[in-house]
Amino acid sequence: MKTFRNVRRLLPALFVAAGVAACSDQNTEKAPTAPGAQATKAAITVPVGSGFDFYVLSLSWSPTWCGDNDPNGKSSQCEVGRNRGLIVHGLWPQNERGYPDFCPTRQSDRVPSSLGRQYLDLIPSMGLIGHQWRKHGTCSGLSQEDYFAVTRAARDRLTLPAELAPARQEKGLRVAAIEDALVAKNPGMTKDAVAVTCEGNRLEEVRVCFDKSLNFRACPAVDRQACRKDTVSLPPAP
């Protein structure tokens, strides 16, 4: 009985202590979110290729290509009003020195239209889709379905700055400014992971290097092939 009475005397003190602890928890501030954490894209899980070292995502400035190859706008890519700027030229398996191409594979050389049509928003030509598979995709160690899925994932991983949006009037940009704008828009990218190429004075391509998990990575050999001009012009979209 004596023990029971002692417990009854202690109960009020225990309730007070619990209340103080609860108030303390409510007043505790949460640790602030690290700056830029919200802007970082979620990790992407993709099929992992084999037989090469890294990828190059090549984006072609469509008005430059159309001006040289289809000035009358006969192809769907170059039709007036399409307003295309950078399009996916291809996703290229690359080695530290050189690159493999036209690799033997058990996969078909032909990309079925049922598959290719799913990627016309990225690569606006069935002919180019087929060519990219035969020359580059066959060296990825992936099936056709996985290769083009990784191509889309790589393009989705990249955010293009406003400077590279298609325009109705020709404009000039410094090559260094293009690289700086890409780096600013893409956390984890450094300038040695991107190369801007030119055709004469015109922007030809933007090439971005990824590892097999689609993290940005440096690629000195690709960077050495970049445009050596200070400024390039961006022809307007038809």
Please, could you describe this protein's structure?
The chain is an alpha+beta fold. It has a single domain, classed as Ribonuclease T2-like (Ribonuclease Rh, Chain A, Alpha-Beta Complex). The chain has seven helices and six strands. The strands form two sheets. Strands 2-1-5-4 form a four-stranded antiparallel sheet. Strands 3-6 form a two-stranded antiparallel sheet. Strand 4 and strand 5 form a beta hairpin. The longest helix has 26 residues.
Report the strand count: 6
Distance between the termini: 96 Å
Biggest β-sheet: strands ordered side by side in the sheet: 2-1-5-4
Q: What proportion strand?
A: 15-25%
Shape: globular
CATH class: Alpha Beta
Q: Sheet with the most strands?
A: 4 strands, antiparallel
String of helices and strands: HEHEHHHEHEEHE
User: What is the name of the CATH superfamily?
Assistant: Ribonuclease T2-like
Radius of gyration: 27 Å
Q: What is the architecture at the second tier of CATH?
A: Alpha-Beta Complex
Count, helices: 7
Q: What name does the CATH topology carry? A: Ribonuclease Rh, Chain A
Q: Considering DSSP H and I runs of 4 or more, what fraction of the residues is helical?
A: 25-40%
**Structural domains: how many:** 1
Poorly predicted regions are: 1-40
**Average pLDDT, to the nearest integer?**
85
Derived structural class: alpha+beta
